[in-house]
């Protein structure tokens, strides 16, 4: 079956299912029908709860089937030298727990992808943020390929004492450090997560083919980059891929938004 037809059928089916669930929930809410209940309605189970439970069950079933299909199909791709793609991993850090940050950086170091570039941008350049740069040096800074820069500004807001000339010089320095280093850390003026990601994207520009992103409390699987690249390379209609984020185990953290 053609990919476009399959996609269209999935869109139609998903839309119809959503409408059916919405209609059922609305009807249950209006009628207030209950299957069982205690005398004073302290406990009850009605049509509304049944529909929500069925919806959750169906979602879980399809998630399980999709996850199993991906596991079976998930054979790492082998790219020839002519097809080799470059990837940069961008880590957004903001007042992170030191243990979580160490685990994140160590997991990034173990990613099984040739010439992976790692860029950590710290959202904050004050003295109390300096421990994150120290951890970067501890885990990734022991090689000649590591670089860092503490910037008084960011790409959209000048820091204290910056002139137009020094601001432009700082921008060029950020680009130079990120592009010349396998592992780089940029500490910049606080601006929020979007500003952090903008710095990483702006500095990388078109120097890499793909950009992978995560938070600084994420522990990455060694095969994560090659697996996501496999999906992007196999289907030209796919423009972005999300990882399989699992709950924390044994004190490990998973990705969350700041």
Automatic annotation (TrEMBL):
It comes from the Eukaryota. One of its GO terms (molecular function) is hyaluronan synthase activity. Pathway: Glycan biosynthesis; hyaluronan biosynthesis. It comes from Marmota marmota marmota. It is found in: Membrane. Keywords: Membrane, Transmembrane, Transmembrane helix. GO terms for biological process: extracellular matrix assembly; hyaluronan biosynthetic process. Its EC number is 2.4.1.212. Residues 237-258 are annotated as: Disordered. GO terms for cellular component: plasma membrane. The gene is HAS3. This is hyaluronan synthase. The chain crosses the membrane at residues 12-36, 42-65. The lineage of its organism: Eukaryota, Metazoa, Chordata, Craniata, Vertebrata.
């Amino acid at each position: 079956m053609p990919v476009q037809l399959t996609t269209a059928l999935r869109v139609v089916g998903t839309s119809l299912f959503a409408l059916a669930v919405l209609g059922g929930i609305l009807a249950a809410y209006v009628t207030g029908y209950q299957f069982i209940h205690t005398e004073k309605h302290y406990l009850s189970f009605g049509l509304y709860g049944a529909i929500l439970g069925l919806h959750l069950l169906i979602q879980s079933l399809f998630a399980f089937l999709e996850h199993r299909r991906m596991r079976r199909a998930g054979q790492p791709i082998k790219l020839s030298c002519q097809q080799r793609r470059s990837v940069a991993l961008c880590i957004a850090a903001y007042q992170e727990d030191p243990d979580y940050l160490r685990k994140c950086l160590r997991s990034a170091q173990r990613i099984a992808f040739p010439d992976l570039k790692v860029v950590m941008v710290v959202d904050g350049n004050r003295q109390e943020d300096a421990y994150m740069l120290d951890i970067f040096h501890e885990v990734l800074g022991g090689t000649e390929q590591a670089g860092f820069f503490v910037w008084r500004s960011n790409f959209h807001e000048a820091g204290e004492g910056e002139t137009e000339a020094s601001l432009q010089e700082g921008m060029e320095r950020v680009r130079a450090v990120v592009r010349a280093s396998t592992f780089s850390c940029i500490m910049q003026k606080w601006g929020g997560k979007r500003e952090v990601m903008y710095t990483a994207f702006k500095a990388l520009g078109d120097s890499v083919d793909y950009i992978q992103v995560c938070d600084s409390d994420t522990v990455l699987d060694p095969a994560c980059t090659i697996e996501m690249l496999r999906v992007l390379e196999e289907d030209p209609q796919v423009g972005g891929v999300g990882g399989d984020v699992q709950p924390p185990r044994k004190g490990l953290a998973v990705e969350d938004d700041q």
